[in-house]
From TrEMBL:
<protein>
    <submittedName>
        <fullName>Rv2578c family radical SAM protein</fullName>
    </submittedName>
</protein>
<dbReference type="InterPro" id="IPR058240">
    <property type="entry name" value="rSAM_sf"/>
</dbReference>
<feature type="compositionally biased region" description="Basic and acidic residues">
    <location>
        <begin position="325"/>
        <end position="341"/>
    </location>
</feature>
<keyword id="KW-0479">Metal-binding</keyword>
<dbReference type="Pfam" id="PF04055">
    <property type="entry name" value="Radical_SAM"/>
</dbReference>
<feature type="compositionally biased region" description="Low complexity">
    <location>
        <begin position="315"/>
        <end position="324"/>
    </location>
</feature>
<keyword id="KW-0408">Iron</keyword>
<keyword id="KW-0411">Iron-sulfur</keyword>
<feature type="region of interest" description="Disordered">
    <location>
        <begin position="314"/>
        <end position="347"/>
    </location>
</feature>
<dbReference type="InterPro" id="IPR007197">
    <property type="entry name" value="rSAM"/>
</dbReference>
<dbReference type="InterPro" id="IPR006638">
    <property type="entry name" value="Elp3/MiaA/NifB-like_rSAM"/>
</dbReference>
<dbReference type="InterPro" id="IPR040086">
    <property type="entry name" value="MJ0683-like"/>
</dbReference>
<feature type="domain" description="Radical SAM core">
    <location>
        <begin position="50"/>
        <end position="298"/>
    </location>
</feature>
Length: 347
């Protein structure tokens, strides 16, 4: 990893003298390298926030062992001269001082208690969190300041922090969303190989709901030709409804640079007959055509109505849903997004 060519934004986060590299010889972390750093800043302002429904993010990790083939945060690894393919899945940057830094920043007179979004870059409940345990300190800091926040995750590890989340929800607005784009197990095993199974994620939704914290589902990504048949969409929405989710928000796969190359090589290996169809569907760039997106959205909304999902039970849930819709409908702004805050992932 090159630390000597960081941009001004990056160097505000990382001190070149503060990198410790570790590996752990346990089956869970075999082949994974952790780069522990002491960040200089942890609350990131989203550039161009006027076009976003949130302005501030906290991301304690970079890289993600959940290893989703389509993950568009892959591109951010290139800013540290790390590989955006396997390197993104196995070279994890850990901001070990995130909780103390956040507590300090929240106490600053310049901070006015704005909403903080987490899980906007990489998953803050990826496996590394089981070892580094940064989120309890982060949630505690937010709870103690009654600072509103939201989390989007695929990680069942979030339930470890259930008590803290309940405590935080008693004093401030807490918005939780779990990402489940499909329930097809074969597709899950190959395209999201490091994640908990979709049904385990829906168990998270169920448990949160049982504890009085409404949780929405970001149905993302809907993967063209692999996870978008009427039967697949119906099975997924039915399972989401059964979990007690407060909302469901479908989002079609998009393929930005960094993710596109990785996804297409995966497609060529696993589903070579679909390569031409994808090239045609994504001929205009990172997004599937509007007609396709509308068709999926309309059908999922019909199914949601049929299965009785929602109406959303809180302003928070509405806010989170709006966040995801807006973020993923937008064109990427690569030029202004070298810092991770702008990299919103399809978790
Ligand atoms: S999509 Fe989310 S969970 Fe999957 S690898 Fe990217 S950050 Fe991790």
């Amino acid at each position: 990893m090159r630390w000597d060519h960081l941009t001004a934004d990056d160097s505000a986060l990382f001190g070149a003298d503060a990198v410790t590299t570790r590996t752990f010889d346990t089956p869970e972390f075999r082949g994974v390298t952790f780069h522990e750093i002491r960040a200089r800043s942890i609350v990131n302002r989203v550039p161009g926030a006027s076009r976003m429904p949130f302005e501030w993010t906290v991301n304690p990790y970079r890289g993600c062992t959940h290893a989703c083939v389509y993950c568009f945060a892959r591109k951010t690894h290139s800013y540290l001269d790390l590989d955006t393919g396997l390197g993104f899945d196995s070279q994890i940057v850990v901001k070990v001082n995130a909780p103390e830094l956040l507590r300090r920043q929240l106490a600053s007179p310049r901070w006015h208690g704005e909403h903080i979004a987490m899980g906007t870059n990489v998953d803050c409940y990826q496996r590394a969190e089981g070892k580094y345990r940064l989120m309890p300190g982060i949630i505690t800091a937010l709870r103690d300041r009654a600072n509103p926040f939201s989390i989007l995750t695929k990680g069942t590890l979030i339930l470890r922090d259930l008590d803290l989340l309940v405590q935080a929800a008693e004093v401030t607005e807490v918005g939780l969303s779990v990402s489940v784009g499909f329930t097809d197990r074969e597709l899950w095993r190959t395209v999201e190989p490091g994640t908990p199974a979709p049904e385990r994620r829906l168990d998270v939704v169920r448990t949160l709901t049982e504890h009085g914290i409404g949780c929405g589902v970001l149905m993302a990504p809907v993967i063209p030709f692999l996870g978008d048949s009427p039967e697949q969409l119906r099975a997924t929405v039915r399972a989401i409804a059964a979990s007690g989710a407060t909302s469901v928000t479908p989002l079609v796969l998009h393929l930005r640079p960094g993710a596109r190359e990785w996804f297409m090589s995966w497609l060529a290996e696993h589903h070579p007959h679909l390569v031409r169809r994808y090239e045609r569907l994504y001929a205009e760039g990172a997004y599937a055509p509007k007609w396709y997106q509308r068709r999926i959205t309309r059908y999922v909304h019909e199914l949601a109505q049929e299965y009785g999902i929602g109406p959303r039970s809180s302003a928070t849930a509405r806010r989170i849903t709006a966040t995801r819709e807006t973020a993923h409908e937008e064109r990427p702004r690569e030029e202004s997004s070298r810092e991770e805050a702008t990299q919103l992932t399809l978790l």
